[in-house]
Predict the 3D structure of the following.
Amino acid sequence: MPLILDGKALSESIRVEISSYVERITSKGYREPSLAVILVGDDPASHIYVKNKRKACERVGIRSLFFHLPQNTTTPELLDLIASLNSDENVDGILVQLPLPTHISQQEIILSVSPKKDVDGFHPENMGKLVARIEGGFIPCTPLGIDLLLKHYGIDPKGKDVVIVGAGFIVGRPLALLMLWRDATVCVCHIHTKDISIYTKKADILISATGVPHLIKEDMVKEGAVVIDVGISKLDNKVTGDVDFERVKDKVYAITPVPGGVGPMTVTALLLNTLQAYKQNMDLKDESF
Ligand code: GUN
């Protein structure tokens, strides 16, 4: 039997700690941490993600402010909202759910969020800190969640061959930088890679973030590897990941389930980033959590 990397259980225990930190700090008279969540349009998947994030905030005592804007919102209108949240000292974190409608400039929006409130870690200032290994920046939530999960199970990427399938802006690329920070040898496969199996077979730690159900088959995975599945999609009406879990699981040392693996860790990482933003905003350096 492989080791199941239980993101749901780890998330729950971290959220209990966050909750008791918030209780402790608010009982001293400080206001609660707050996160502004912006959703533009009516993409059903985005609605579900945002609902989960807000629910998770409220359960640990983080106030969530929700801004649901219509599909036809313009870039200047969205920029105005972000500017007002940037200057509101009672707002610690700002999250603009992606993808945005195509008529809005994603790049302009990402650049407009104050790096101090950028709990997604998407602003170039925070991405730059990840490149330069500068502590104190925000690390994007899914990479941070995976890092915490590996750490919890005593899996150290140092000196390992880490292969990432998927080079997206939200997961693959920042994760490659984080794994480099952890001293792994990193290989990133993407849509133009001729044959991903050449690389996946060599991976000590294989991380797939493509959203292609069952892309990773048994013969593409090394015996004893650690497999992290970031994908979440539907196959035959069942929630499934990028990895053919049932066939791959008996071959590996450890594997994340879908659901219950990376997904909850991403949301927990968002809560941790919001707490970090709060502590920096309120100058609560000495308050350990
Ligand atoms: N869409 C999919 N994943 C994410 C994420 O981590 N943050 C934001 N803002 N949008 C997303």
